Task: structure prediction
Amino acid sequence: MEKIEKNRAFNSRQMIIWLAALLLGGALGMLNCNAVNEFLNFTASAYTRLFKFVAVPTIALAVTATLAMLGAERNTGRIFLHTIVYTVLTTLVAAVVGVVLYLVIAPGNLPLELVKQAQSAASGQNLTPVSVYDHILAVIPDNVITPFFSGNVLSILLVAAAVGLALAAGRNSENVQVLLKAVNGLQEIFFIVIKALIWALPLGIVAFAGQLTAQMSTGESVGELGKYVTVVLTGNILQFFVILPLFLLMRKINPVRVFKGMLPAVLMALFTKSSAATLPVTIASAENNLSAKPEVARFVLPLCCTINMNGCAAFIMVTSLFVMQNGGVTLTLSTIAVWVLIAVISAVGNAGVPMGCYFLTLSLMAGINMPIGVLGVILPVYAVIDMIETAVNVWSDSCVCAIVDKTVKQK
Result:
């Protein structure tokens, strides 16, 4: 009981420090001083790099260690099944909410000249159409090292899962037991590093907040683009504050308690715009603040970080409709239904990296010869959209983890 009270006091102090850092960063960003902005950009980039550095081995070690421990138990299948079910359900709802808002708010077409002017910004991404088979093949590694060097989270997850299941199958071997101890030892080392990074994070928050404030001063929104942005942001806000809390309430879980516990991860996602880079903080918050079982948090969260992309599904859905509408496509119910399916599948396979959804949507639209210049118009405001949708993604991961954790504890 005393330990719980100490944790609560520490979390309260931590939150006050983080909010103070947030305000300080915003004030520094508003100074509009080049020297200050350069330092903020440098510091923000350094923190993002550090968290990405620990994110890749954290994903691999967490999944490998958890599957090695649970592989021979019935718990594993139940944890995996519940994670997949809630991931698909929340992602599907996010896409459908996006469609409903799009039909209600009904953004019109952008001026043709504006689209042509922005064409170069979008077409400069060296896009080539990617088939479903190409997408699947890109996930299947052809050697052990490439996924880690390229940062391909899906491939890393696949390799880690295979190794974890193999360790579980050979757990009676003395050599495998030694290897298991090494994996667990490495995992402990990385969690110590993560704790140190979280302790020093207020400086990073100052940099992230200052960087955002400076960037927002250069944003733009015109005419029908404003309606489009309203659809995307409203969909994400509804998913964050209404839909996901309803999922928690249906499982008799207090959304406020979960939100307070996972706030460090949500704020981190907001600023880094990367659910993969945020993963170490997400796992630490779930275990320390929600008392989630380590075998659940270290399996569910890396998996969700890879496949649970609520914000991305909403963005792909709404943006695809907007681009196709500008391309002269009639948005019938059957067309919308097909793109709901495409949005959900694409979001599940999307990488949890900054601007991942943007480039994925760009590729999809280029593949069907739609006017990708529309995405060039969207680009200046995408930084804010990316922040919010990443926060939604991590909040959804947190909710799924809380639900699965309660399910496992009840059993």
Observations:
- The two ends are 24 Å apart (CA to CA).
- The chain has a mean pLDDT of 81.
- The longest helix spans residues 373-410.
